[in-house]
Amino acid sequence: MSEGLQVRGLWASYRRGPDVVRGIDLDAARGSITALLGPNGSGKSTLLKAVVGLVESRGEVSLDGEDLRSIAPEQRAQRVAYVPQRSLLTAPLLVHAVVAQGRFSHRRALGRLGIEDREIVDRALEDADITHLACRPFTELSGGEQQRVLLARALATGAGVLLMDEPTSAQDVRHALELHAILRRLRERGAAILVCLHDLSEVRAIADRAVLLECGAVHADGPTDQIVHDRHITPVYGVELIEGGGLGFRLAQGGET
Prior knowledge:
This protein is of the alpha/beta class. The chain has a domain at about 5-85 and about 160-235: P-loop containing nucleotide triphosphate hydrolases (Rossmann fold), CATH 3.40.50. It is about 35% helix and about 25% strand. It has nine helices and ten strands. The protein has helices at about 45-50, 75-80, 95-100, 115-125, 145-155, 175-190, 200-205, 225, 230-235; strands at about 5-15, 20-30, 30-35, 55-65, 65, 80-85, 160-165, 190-195, 210-215, 215-225. The strands form two sheets. The chain has a six-stranded mixed β-sheet, with helices on both faces. Strands 2-1-4-5 form a four-stranded antiparallel β-sheet. The mean pLDDT is about 90.
């Protein structure tokens, strides 16, 4: 039995419009980070939404060899967590309450959070470095802070598969590096991580495998160092890679990078 997330022949569209995702096959194995990359409009975000059932789609999506769509919604929420690029939440819920939403699928109907649930929520707040925001209204936070709250909510689910849409797009350098460290720890625990990224240097820094999309289809799929290469990047992006270009960063005081 295959372990992790498997997508076969996936097509997706919005409200019966033209297909945005066209016949995609990919695997996100447990114990690895798989990056989705491609120009704007290539279908990265739509692919993630199709996997979790937020847009119309057809094709096969399975988890550890089991049809994901045959799993009860509450069980699916315990096994697959989705972190959008931004939240549509408009109610001024406190951050702690937003993160606690990640435990809903583990609770009985109308049940309150148990001691274990509260401990998991507190640990998720700590892992995302937002404990100090726990009593702040979510709607008053910056975009980067809100992204970290959404990550904490996903961590609180305890899911072994994590789908993330450009999680560092609104993060400063330090918090982006801290996110990288979180993803590495999750990988070491056996999680399957599928993450949309724009920054190709970031893809090289954290991803074991890369899937390059072009016009809704897979242009190339393989180990990161083979995909983030001129032979694939130049025809899709219209740019050439400059090895050693740009600035590099690492966490100060011996922090993990």
